[in-house]
Amino acid sequence: MLFEFAVIGGILLGIYYALFAMGLNVVFGAQRIINLAHGDIVVLGGYAAWELYETAHVSPIIAAVVVLPFAIALGFLVHRYLTPRLTRSSDPETLSLILFFGLSQVIEAAASLIFGPNEHSLPTSALPVSSLHLFGESYPGIWWVAVLVSIPMLAVFLWLLYRTPFGLRVRAVMSSASEAATAGIESRLVSGLFFGIGFGLAAAAGTMGIFIFGGIAPTDGVALTITAFAIIVFGSLGNPVGTVIAALIFGVVTQLAQVYAPSWSNLVPYALVILTMLLRPQGLLGRRQRVA
Amino acid sequence: MTVNSQIRTPLLQIADLVTRFGKFRALDGVSVEVGESQAIGLVGPNGSGKTTLVNTVCGLYPSASGSIHFAGTNLTGKRADIIAKAGINRTFQISKPFASLTVRENVEVAAHHARHPRDVDEVLEQTDLASHSRASASNLTAAQQKRLDLARALVMSPRLLFIDELAAGLTPNELQDVAAMLRNLVNDGVSLVVVEHLMGFLEQVVDGVYVLTAGQVIFRGPLRDALADDRVQEVFLGRNDSARS
pTM for the complete prediction? Predict the structure, then answer.
């Protein structure tokens, strides 16, 4: 029964991890940079859920939707005002790591000043269900709620990317911003909006993260970024479908580790990155040349 | 007779254009004019500034000084997407199709942004890509990817088309076909600027050439005059007066 519990629980959490990591992959696709502040945006989403619940008893499910436009706007502004100098530099990849590490530290310091250094959490009574049973096993209510939030958001995101004219433009810009511009696409606007969507998905994931990770603290950002990074590298950088598959595998492996070898479970993200680099550097769905 | 003297109505006027990479002047006061329904060639050794000129006119590189007027509108410093919508389109020396899109999607996405888009199927037929329309662009051969580049430009109904080394790697028969297609475009009212090293190919397509070296125009006029010009010969063959005598 433990095995079934781990696998089903892992799939539920894996669906959430897909939402959690997707934002990082989206930002990479939009600008070919690794957003080292990704985990901090997740943390900000968590604080937003906490603030909305504590001050107005807003459900975390509603909070996931409420934070979206604000986080998208934040991402758009970051893209518009912080990244142009990167693209003009001779080494944008290295400079982007420094820039977004700096942004991460700023967010962390601001969160410490506003919310204090201690962990914040919300009671499970903030959720519509405390637990649900499946095949005789009880699963925490937040896992189901996270699935309830993650699936529609991921579905809308993938629909937007693969079934709309905007998505067609995004995929063109992700392939080659300069060629997209010469095809009449306003590359900077399109990549800015997509970059913002990456922030939005991260913040939305954060509203669930305050429960899933057992609370949030200003310093959680780095560890969360590493976990998301492991998932998108495993699934292939720049490949959203790869992120979903990798997140499901990551969820199941992490749950199996927590059930059978709990003291080792924290190593799963790091082991995943190392194994991916050694065995399949292009990731699960990657080709030799990275594509969107 | 010069290239300029053949111009009936100037469509593109580039005046004293300077493009810098740091302190290096990749374009050093280049002036070029292209008329309506005229095809000109851009010729010069590697590093002479041909592609830099194309990239600057198309808005991918910023100019340091000089001006670019197109159909009476000042396009100097405008964004690449605005220039594309204005009717200046191009192919790339090294084609980079949108790899995650199908061949058809590659053309459709450009059609979405054209002021007067052509029919996508018609353009795919014209560029001999109709049978590959559902294939991923990343699976095309290099020659097919160049044709896809051309299809993406053609679907936008260009008034001026930059063709950057489209003929490289083509067989003699394919060269004939491409040359005929480009001449048909000119007959249909499209102006062409063709960057090319193959003089035989250029001879079939263009009305005259500009020869660039070290970011400067050293010759403008008919191709056969260019081939007989001392400065041009020196640039291409390293020939000097003492060697000739």
Answer: 0.85
**Residue B180 located in a structural domain:** no
Answer yes or no: do A175 and B59 touch at CB < 8 A: no
Nearest CA in chain B to A29: B100
Residue B173 included in any domain = no
Same domain, B133 and B238: no
Residue B107 and residue B16 share a domain? no
Residues B196 and B124 in one domain: no
CB atoms within 10 A of CB B214: 15
Task: Name the residue type at position A129.
Answer: V
Q: Which residues of A touch B (CB under 8 A)?
A: 165, 168-169, 171-172, 174-176, 178-188, 287, 289, 291-292
Q: Is residue B175 part of a domain?
A: no
Separation in Å, CA of A187 to nearest CA in chain B: 8
Q: Do B97 and A175 touch (CB under 8 A)?
A: yes
Does the domain made of A2-117+138-279 have the CATH classification 1.10.3470? Answer: yes
Is residue B64 domain-shared with residue B17, that is, in the same domain?
A: yes
CATH number at residue B222: 3.40.50.300
Please list, in sequence order, all residues whose beta carbon lies within 8 angstroms of the beta carbon of residue B237, skipping any fewer than 6 positions away. Answer: none
Tell me which chain A residues have a C-beta less than 8 angstroms from the C-beta of B150.
none
Domain chopping of chain A, boundaries:
2-117+138-279
Pair (B126, B31) in one structural domain: no
Question: Do B49 and B74 have their domain in common?
Answer: yes
CA distance B211 to A83: 38
Domain that holds residue B113: 93-157
Q: How many domains does chain B divide into?
A: 2
Do A186 and B99 lie within an 8 Å CB cutoff?
A: no
Place of tokens 């053949």: B6
Domain-located, residue B74: yes
Quick check: A165 and B113 CB within 8 A?
no
Q: Do B85 and A184 touch (CB under 8 A)?
A: yes
Residue carrying structure tokens 């518009």: A80
Task: Write A85-90 long-range contacts (CB < 8 A, 24+).
Answer: A86/A31, A86/A33, A87/A31
Structure tokens at A63: 């909070």
CB distance B100–A292 less than 8 Å? yes
Chain B residues whose beta carbon lies within 8 Å of the beta carbon of residue A168: 101, 105, 108-109, 112
Residue B150 sits in the same domain as residue B231: no
In chain B, what residues touch A172 (CB-CB under 8 Å)? 98, 101, 106, 109
pLDDT tens-digit profile, chain A (292 residues): 788 999 999 999 999 999 999 999 998 888 788 899 999 999 999 999 999 999 999 999 999 999 999 999 999 999 999 888 887 777 877 888 999 999 999 999 999 999 999 999 999 889 988 888 888 888 999 999 999 999 999 999 999 999 999 999 999 998 888 899 999 999 999 999 999 999 999 999 999 999 999 999 999 999 999 999 999 999 988 889 999 999 999 999 999 999 998 888 888 888 888 888 898 888 888 765 444 4
Burial A179-214 (b: 16+ CB within 10 A, else e): bbbbbbbbbbbbbbbbbbbbbbbbbbbbbbbbbbbe
